[in-house]
Amino acid sequence: MAGRSNIVVSAAVREALAVGAPVVALESTLIAHGLPRPRNRDVALELEDQLREKGVTPATVAVIDGLPRVGLDEADLRRIADDTAVLKVSVRDLPVACATGRTGATTVASTALLAARAGIRVFATGGLGGVHRGAGDSFDESADLVALATTPITVVCAGVKSILDVGATLERLETLGVTVLGYRTSTFPGFYLQHTSYDLDWRVGEPGQVATVMAAADAMELASAIVVANPLPTDQALDPALHDRVLTDALTWAADRGIRGKSVTPFLLETFHLETGGASLEVNINAVRNNVSVAADVAVAWARTAA
Ligand code: PSU
Ligand code: MN
Which catalytic residues are annotated (predicted)? Predict the structure, then answer.
């Protein structure tokens, strides 16, 4: 299979993996469709620098002119951030985007898949996709869940996006066999909010503990992901009253405008950023930064464990 793979792994990422040095994958949908231009470009570059400063090789994932790439050069990173024509590419879109030579940003689902195929074990994002509110009627459930069920990768996130039905998403993660670890918390984080009302079964305090869990999962050849749920500090989270008010409006407007499919999440995030006067944007960026920082520590611990 390796010989036929069309995945292009950058030289920097290939060299790091070859010597067992720490690598963290980053997704590009949050850059292209989750954060507004031009701020998104600065964030994309900053996240990579944040990893390099910790001695970790960044591997941002995207489809560029029909090639699934793990590890982007700066020109491609800028293109993903700047170009308004960049598609949102989930797992099911990958073969078509590649076959037709398109350029697209990868979601948690497609990033996890490509990164794992390339041999990367740790991945950072903002908030996972999951079960949308009203999914009982709409059946809108993110492909992220299926990817997490079938991809052995550790994903550091601030929980699942608070625009979702968090309780239903946690139930699905349980059903799908996805391990969920609270990072220095026993309560599931709430993305824009520091916490939700849901308790977690497992809590870890140190990056090395995550690496130990990864090794135990490998030892029994588990195929599913490990979610490391990392809450925002209280002073970086969104005001809960503002959050609830904007969410109610955003959900109503999404329904009124008939927003469907892969447009739902970008629409809700953009509405949040507009209606909170940019406050949710700062919160979102801080969540991603914090997750990248923890992911770097986990990747370093993993490199030691696996050595
Ligand atoms: N985290 C963020 N912002 C985002 C996302 C995650 O802080 O925009 C993206 C991820 O790419 C995730 C996607 O996979 O949102 C979920 O989209 P959907 O609900 O359509 O599966
Ligand atoms: Mn959806």
Answer: 27, 161
Q: Which of 46, 48, 53, 161 is catalytic?
A: 161
Q: What is the pLDDT of residues 27-49, one digit of tens each?
A: 999 999 999 999 999 999 999 99
Q: Which residue has the tokens 């500090």?
A: 233
Catalytic residue among 15, 27, 141, 282: 27
Residue 19 has a CB neighbour count (10 Å cut-off) of: 8
Give the closest residue (by CA) to ligand 1 atom 21.
142
| ipTM field | 0.98
Tokens of 213: 């869990």
Given a contact cutoff of 8 angstroms between Cβ atoms, the answer to whether 159 and 196 are in contact is yes
Spatial contact of 223 and 150, defined as CB atoms under 8 Å apart: yes
* C-alpha 132: how far from chain center: 17
pTM of the entire predicted model: 0.97
Q: Pick from 97, 103, 98, 102: which is nearest to 76 by CA? A: 103
What are the pLDDT digits (tens) for 229-270?
999 999 999 999 999 999 999 999 999 999 999 999 999 999
Q: Which of 26, 27, 94, 169 to mutate to test the pocket of ligand 1 (most atoms within 8 A of CB)?
A: 27
Determine if residue 140 is labeled as part of a ligand binding site: yes
Cα–Cα distance measured from residue 109 to residue 61, given in angstroms and rounded to the nearest whole number: 11
Active site residue 262: no
Give yes or no: 141 in active site: no
Helix, strand, coil abundance in the chain, percent, nearest 5? 50, 15, 30
List ligand 1's pocket residues with C-beta within 6 A: 27, 29-30, 33-34, 107-109, 125-127, 129, 142-144, 262, 265, 269, 284, 288
Any known ligand binding at 199? Answer: no
Q: Rg for the chain (alpha carbons), in Å? A: 18
- Treating both helix axes as pointing N-terminal to C-terminal, what angle do 264-275 and 240-256 enclose, rounded to 10 degrees? 130
- Looking only at the bridges linking them, the beta strands covering 179-183 and 104-106 are unpaired
306 C-alpha to ligand 1 centroid (Å): 30
